[in-house]
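#structure-requests
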Amino acid sequence: MADPLVSPPLDPARILRPAGIVRPARMLHRNRALRSLGAALVALLLVTALPLDARAADRPADWFTPVPGFTVTRPFDKPAQNWESGHRGIDVGALPGETIRAPAAGTVRFAGTVAGRQVLSLEVAGYVVSFEPVGSELSAGDEVFAGQPVGTVAEPAHCETGCVHVGVWRADAEKDYLNPASFFAADSTVLLPEAEAPSELPAVPAGDDGASGAGQWGGHENGRIPAVAMCPLASAPGHRLRCDAAKAFDALDAAYREEFGRGISVTDSYRDYETQVVLKHRKGRMAATPGRSNHGWGLAVDLGGGINSFGTVQHEWMRSNGPRFGWIHPAWARSGGSLPEAWHWEFRAG
C-alpha cells in the first residue's frame, strides 16, 4: 500500500525540462522597447555621472510578509523635513494576538517597551525593520529565520481596525526612513471588484481550462497537513507546499528568473487551520471559511512582484508559461471570473 504521506514521483521531463518558454507577442515587443530604453538610460547616467545612491538598487524586494493576507491599510508618506507630520512607515492589517513573522534571516535588535508601546526590531540584510505594537519573548542578539514567528500583535491596537506599524531604515547610517512596502514580496493585496475587472486577457496555451488544482490528497484534512508531507520552497524560504508542487514551483521560478533577472515573489503558500481562522476574523467575507481554503491543501500560492496585477508583463508571462510547470490561474480568479485575484495560482498535477 502506498504511503499517503509521500507524493508520487514526477516525470522529470515534464517538470524539469518543459517545452520552450512562451513569450506573448505583446510582451516581446515591450521587452525590446524596454531593453532599448534601458540601454539609453544607462548611457545617459554614465555621461552625466548623476550622484545616485547605488545601494538603492540592491535593496531586497523578497521579504516574507509580516502576516498572511498582506494588506497595507495606510501607506508610506515621508515628510520633506523630519519635523513635519507624515507617516514614516506603513500600517499593515493585523489583529491583536496575531502572529508576526520575520521577513528574512537576521537578528533581534530590540524587544521591549518604548513610550509605553511594545516594539520589536530586527536587523535583516543591513536594514532595521521595526514592528509596533508587537510583544515578543525574544531578546536582543537572538537569531531568526525567514517566516519564523517572532512575536504577536499587542494591545492597544495601532489603529481602530487592527493593524501593526512597520518601519524600515538602514542599519549602518543615520536613521532615514524608507518605504517598507518595497521590501516585501508583495504589493498590497487589494481584492478587485468584479465590476472593475479588465477585459479577459489573451488565451493561455491549450490544455489549461482553468480548473482548480487544489483539493484533498493523502487522506489529510484542510489546514492540518503534517510537516513531513510537505517540502520547503528552495526559491522562497519560509514557504511550504506539497512536495511535487514545491519541486515544480522551483523549476518555474528558475525559468522566471532567467526571463526577468529575479525570482518570483511569493506572499503566501500553505495556510494551516489556525491561520485560516485568523484571516477569516480579520477579513470577514473576503476570506475563505476555515477548513475550506484552497491554501489549506498546500497546492496554492499568492504571488507579487507584478504577477499580482492583471495586464502586466509578469502576469502575462505566468499565464503563458505557468501551465507548462503545472501551475495554473484558476478560472474563478481570472479577470472575468467570479472573484478576480490576479495573484492566486494553483498546482494541478497530471
